[in-house]
Design brief:
Radius of gyration: 18 Å
Helix content: 10-25%
CATH class: Mainly Beta
Structural class: alpha+beta
Bound molecules: 2-oxoglutaric acid, fe (ii) ion
Largest sheet: 9 strands, mixed
Number of domains: 1
Shape: globular
CATH architecture: Sandwich
Low-confidence stretches: 184-188
CATH topology: Jelly Rolls
Distance between the termini: 56 Å
Order of helices and strands: EHEHHEHHEEEHEEHEEEEE
Strand content: 15-25%
CATH superfamily: q2cbj1_9rhob like domain
Amino acid sequence: MPKATAYPERNGRDLDPAEAADLLCDNGCLLVRRALRRLDVFDLHERAEAFYAMRDRQLAEGTLPEAYDRYLYRFGHIHMQEIDREGEAPGVVRRRIADSALAPVLDAFLDEDVRFVLNNSLLRRQRPGDVERYVPFHQDAAFMGSDVTVVNCWIPLVPCGVEAPGLEVVVAGGRKVLATGGQGGKGGAIYDAIDLSEERVVRAFGTETLWHPAFELGDVLLFTNFTIHRTYVRPEMAGNRISIEARAVSGGGLPERFADEPLMPLRPRKRADA
Ligand SMILES: O=C(O)CCC(=O)C(=O)O
Ligand SMILES: [Fe+2]
């Protein structure tokens, strides 16, 4: 068993972007402690709770807009930009990331021109008991593709991994995509087509590569579309978790299928004539 210190983890306050990008590359993940200010995460959480409460009311009353993707809501998702407030600069999550130590790491890892894929930048709510929403082992490459590098900025809005469901990752680099589908992972039906069985993951990588950190407010886990991960949930957990999965790519050399994807630059571009 590697010691806890062997896991790829750094503090946001003394982060070397190039070293952090290397760690992310070599391990498929990097936990940045105190990457965001606690007050800012607290604010994101308040916004999220208010928005979920509004959608829950609509769901109960049967007025959840059809266009608004009941499908997404079934997974516990809302879109990242839905917690923006009128009159403020667009993309509150984007702004918090842009102002943090994460931004230079994303620049270094993705080679500049970092953009969020809006249709895949979501909030997710996990509540113990919502068993069908627990996500089994999978790689995001199964739906994001493997012809592109995607960084998931996974931001829990409450402490999690101990009393509320957290996230478990396989600490391993590389760009290998495992064949998927109906392998009987312990998750619910929603990921059935892309799940990887626990037995297969353990056989291939060993239990010592499995990591489910305890997340504090402000901690952010970066991982790629090749990283194997799942919801970490234990029977004794009683708390809810809302988290953000903000997926970033490099705008340079994107495959053709991204032509119509709404992308939000990490930093607004300065107009040449401004
Ligand atoms: O939050 C979870 O439980 C699963 C998250 C996940 O699969 C992702 O962010 O890609
Ligand atoms: Fe995922």
